[in-house]
Amino acid sequence: MRLQNKVTVITGAAHGIGKAYARRFAEEGAHVVIADIDAETGQSVAQALCQAGLSAWARTTDVRSYSDVEGLMRDTVNRFGRIDVLLNNAAIYVTQKLWKGPVDELPLEEWERVLEVNLKGVFLCCRAVIPIMKRQRSGKIINIASGTFFSGSGDMPHYTASKGGVVALTRVMARQLGPWGINVNCMTPGSTMSEEVVTDEVRRRRESSAAQRCFQRIELPEDIVGTALFLASSDSDFMTGQLLVVEGGGIMH
User: Fold this and answer.
1) Hey, which bits of 55-122 come out as E strands?
2) What is the C-alpha to C-alpha distance for residues 192 and 206, in angstroms, rounded to an integer?
3) CA 195, CA 185: separation in Å to the nearest integer?
4) Catalytic residue flag (residue 159)
5) 120 φ, ψ to 5°?
6) Mean pLDDT within 76-94
7) Are the CB atoms for 143 and 121 separated by under 8 Å?
8) For residue 159, which of 115, 103, 101 has the smallest C-alpha distance?
9) Tell me, what's the pLDDT at 202?
């Protein structure tokens, strides 16, 4: 197994793609920490993995709070002894009623709400885990960006700006943390059918995205988790500061 006994913290792992990351990583032998603001569902996901004979633990976490994030990292080390992988998956997206429209009409409070989770949350998690990984002189940090960073599409100026910031932060950290043997990389899932409840509107949106790809089918969480696994495993030990696009050929760069 490619992640045998690797301690992996995944934010936003109670739902959607995050939940798929958690299962795949656990199946590959990782001790998975389900870090999510949704306490009840996080516990349910961890319990289901444990009942399947895998290793998982849920820790309720609000990535907007540094004290909460510090507590997450401290409790993880107390429980498992180390942190090998941090996957910054938690984010606000269209599945959570994301505002859309022109930048000059974007409400200030909406800008702050999205940036606080999507960019500040990534920064806080990284800030809290870096000292631990420095002491180990090893670690993998995986950040999640978006294809809207390339195209500016979607009429989501705050979301796109937050994901562009994640790419920039990834590159800065890769340079700064290289001397400690810490890998920092980024990936962009495309429009993915990750919702637990699929409405007609959601399906139409996913089908519209699929029509723009080389592989003209709806993207599923299972299409993405392999790339995250690669970035978390020893297979990517000499890769850092990179942005991998996993969108079925919808974006080429």
Assistant:
1) 55-60, 85-88
2) 7
3) 25
4) yes
5) -60, -40
6) 95
7) no
8) 115
9) 60
Choice among 21, 66, 93, 159 that is catalytic:
159
Question: Rounded to whole angstroms, how far apart are CA atoms 172 and 70?
Answer: 21
Cα of first residue to Cα of last residue in the chain, in angstroms, is: 32
User: Can you tell me which residue has the tokens 């000499």?
Assistant: 238
C-alpha 1/C-alpha 109 separation (Å) is: 45
In total, the chain counts a number of residues equal to 253
pLDDT band at 126 (very low <50, low <70, confident <90, very high): very high
Give yes or no for a contact between 105 and 160, defined as CB atoms under 8 angstroms apart.
no
DSSP string, 171-230: HHHHHHHGGGTEEEEEEEE-SB---SS--HHHHHHHHHHHTTSSS-S-B-GGGTHHHHHH
Give all domains of the chain, ordered by start, each with its CATH number: 7-246 (3.40.50.720)
The pLDDT tens digits for 227-241 are: 999 999 999 999 999
